[in-house]
Amino acid sequence: MKKFLPILFIINLYTVSICAQVNTSDSLSLVQFYSRTGGMTWLQQYNWLTGPVANWQRVTLTGDRVTELRLPGNGLTGNNFGGALNQLSMLEVIDLSNNQLSGNIPDTFYFSLNLAEVNFSHNNFTGKFPKSLSTRNSLIKADVSYNQLSGKIPEGLCSLSGLQELKLNNNSFTFEGMECIATVTGSIYNNQQKINADKKNNILTVSVGGTAVNNTYTWYRDGNVYATISADSSFAITETGTYYVSVTNIVATQLILESNPIIIAPIQNTDSLALLDIYSALDGNNWTDNTNWLSGTPAATWSGVTVENGEVTMLDLSDRNLSGEIMRNNKNVNPSKRIMGLSDALQNLTALNWLSLANNNLSGNIPSGIANLSNLTYLSLKSNSFNGAIPQGICDLNNLTTIDISNNAFNFDGMECIGQKQGAIYDNQRNLTVTNKNPNLAVTAGGTLAKNTYTWYKDNILLESRTGDSTLTITTSGTYYVVVTNTDASGLSLISSPLSVSEVLPLEWIGFTAQSCSGNICLTWITQNEYNTSHFEVEKSSDGINFKKLHAVISKNSSSKNEYSYTDMDPEEKYVYYRIKQTDKDGKYTYSKTVLINNAAPYSLQFYPNPANDYFIIQGVRKSLKIIIYNSAGLVVKQETGVKEGIPVYINNLNPGVYIAKIIDSSNNEIILRLIKQ
After folding, report:
1. Is the pTM value of this prediction over 0.70?
2. Which CATH architecture has domain 198-264?
3. What is the Cα–Cα distance from 658 to 675, expressed in whole angstroms?
4. Which of 209, 221, 335, 475 is most exposed, with the fewest beta carbons within 10 Å of its own?
């Protein structure tokens, strides 16, 4: 029916001109308002668009101008009718109450110079109180109650000398601007919607506006008054329970703001132990934010932990300076003698649906336990140094809608299935390394070889592209790099670091190893395709920069695999660097990779017996120790200093269960072990 409105409007203007001489701008505004508020479905629309404006139901004219528009409870709908009222500059009364209007209340009353009464109550309006109303000195009554308005009340309302009635109740206002409104005679502003309290670690805060010293915050725990605080909107949680706050203001006394409840639930034992293992596996003592971890406060107050119904549902350990390599769990180690690995700890958080380890310094494989988190919807591992194949199980997580593994060191191993997940982010991986296996260059990019395309460049000029072949035979020197793409993981282009080849030498390095052997260092290196080679020189360094010659070995100059060895009888330093210098008959030379040997003895501790009854003994102690024992809730249950090897540590007063022991030596080195008390 809307297509007939222009015709009706022309008829209306003709009628106005001949019969009532109504202001054309006012007529245009009413027609537009009718269209934008679903006029065809109004409950009452007598004479609208069919006769003189003076006869339109619930429209009042004074002379040729519209002065009143009263359409309460008339089935009006829509959320964008503001522009339709711009031209009603002589409007004195507007009543649109008890309809289904939504969106913002039009802020178009700057030109309604005689506006005296407005009523927008009992609708679904959102946004702020229209500022233009606060500029109308003619305003006598304003009612915006029973909507969803929020934000600061305009200060100008308080200075309207003629204002006799102002209803702001049953919205979502706070004390922001309300202290001024409290001084207006006839103002009603009670019964606002509940506000949300914010939780960061163990601190609850609420934003209610108003002057801070005028506010009083009464905190409730499990329905009982727990604390009353003036002028401070924050509150520290120390125990589990259901919390909410009631806020009053000594000026705006009609209003009592109440928050929605926040539940700080106790955590089940398996989740508690899993968090302790995660803290241990990721060196929690050195996190940039480990607030409340192992502090004795509820786990729901630990930084980055969200608990619902006794289970951890969100774990945010992003930006914590987590570092180290994520190792696969050693299944051959007795579980009672090791801290559970990160992978096992994560998979024990069975209710986890949100996990972030983003923006840290983690390396190694993605913890495989993540693939068992069937409730996971969000996973972010971005900006670390993770590498290796993506576990297939991650692609099989049906609830996972967001995954971001960008800015790591992955290649296409396991990435093809990630590339098929909607919205997955996996770009910007570390540069690949091109290997020079004379005279062939090669690169390892993972994935299905037949789906990979390798585009090679020499001196920044395209050389050639090939699919399913990761090698390139070179004949001349230059700087080479390659770009690898995959048909299934199209969101990622792997780029290699440039490799400068000064010349094509007739020698291929197969391997070079160095290892301790009976107090000496045994070196072995293997080559093939030797051509025009003269000899090898073994070089040694204590700093990896300044090398000295140890020994020379004549080259076999053979195209087959050639193995050489040398034993350093005097390693001397704790850390020793070795490399092999290969020299051609024409004097040109290359170096093998440099290897580092650590001659320091390992530092290894263990408990005996474990499980233990009344006591245990620490084995492998080199220095005086301090030991701190935590229970599964993270509480300290025992501390002892001056512990030495062979001296019993008595635990007969501890209850049977699983404990975490933190061992600190005199150099402040820390080791964490699991202890079982029988």
Report:
1. no
2. Sandwich (2.60)
3. 6
4. 475
Q: d(Cα 104, Cα 115) in Å, to the nearest integer?
A: 19
CA distance 289 to 360: 12
What is the rounded CA–CA span in Å between residue 293 and residue 660? Answer: 13
The burial of 256, by beta-carbon neighbours within 10 Å (0-12 exposed, 13-18 middle, 19 or more buried), is given as: middle
Is there a contact between 629 and 616 (Cβ–Cβ < 8 Å)?
no
103-106 contacts, C-beta under 8 A, 24 or more apart: 103/78, 103/79, 103/127, 104/79, 104/128, 104/130, 105/129, 105/130, 105/144, 105/147, 105/149, 106/81, 106/82, 106/130
Confidence (pLDDT) at 533: 84
Kindly state which CATH superfamily the domain 270-290+300-418 is placed in: Ribonuclease Inhibitor (3.80.10.10)
**Which CATH class, in words, describes the domain spanning 434-500?**
mainly beta
Q: How far is CA 398 from CA 401, 459, 543, in A?
A: 8, 46, 51
Q: Is the pLDDT of residue 622 over 70?
A: no
* Residue 558, token pair as written in the block: 């053979």
CA angle 386/387/389 to nearest 5° reads: 125
Cα 394 from Cα 369, distance rounded (Å)? 9
**What are the structural domain ranges in the chain?**
2-188, 198-264, 270-290+300-418, 434-500, 508-598, 606-677
Beta bridge pairs of residue 215: 249
Domain 2-188 identical in fold to domain 606-677: no
Q: What is the CATH number of domain 606-677?
A: 2.60.40.1930
Give which of 278, 283, 372, 347 is closest to 316, Cα–Cα: 278
pLDDT (mean) for 653-662: 86
H, E, C per residue of 252-317:
CCCCCEEECCEEECCCCHHHHHHHHHHHHHCCHHHCCCCCCCCCCCCHHHCCCEEEECCEEEEEEC
Please tell me the predicted confidence (pLDDT) of residue 343: 80
CATH number for 2-188 (one of 3.30.70.1150, 1.10.1740.10, 3.80.10.10, 3.40.50.720): it is 3.80.10.10
Which pairing describes strands 361-364 and 385-386: parallel, antiparallel, or unpaired? parallel
Token pair of 312 as six digits: 């951890």
Query: What does the alpha-carbon distance between residue 620 and residue 633 come to, in Å, rounded to a whole number?
Result: 28
How many other β-carbons are positioned within 10 Å of the β-carbon of residue 454?
Answer: 23
For residue 335, name the pLDDT band (cuts at 50, 70, 90). very low
